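Bench notes, afternoon.
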Amino acid sequence: MSDTTIPSCLQRDLSEVLQQQMFFWGQDTLRPTGNFFVEQGLTRTSTEASKGTSCYRLDWQNGHIELYGACAGWYGQDQGFTFIRPRRRCYIWNTGEKTPAPDHWEKDYLQLGSTSELHANALPFLD
């Protein structure tokens, strides 16, 4: 697939959609009962990265999905996809050793890549 197959404006559109969707996901997590993530099998854990922040995690397609209030993505063995909400931007996450957490995304692991590479890395998250 060439980069001309997926226009770069779709990267912007994806970022805007995720920005809005994360707001609604956050509202759902505030409910005392019926949390959608837990109902769907995601595991909720507290995180040391940011006080008062939870991480929702699910093993998925030879990797896992992690959702925080500030970032969300799918992470495989070598690469993955992440959306960093304060930056309003999608990235290729270029390591399988660690994953981003709120305010702890190391720039060495963030890669813009080509539109096609970003699309390929985003597919498991979008599924």
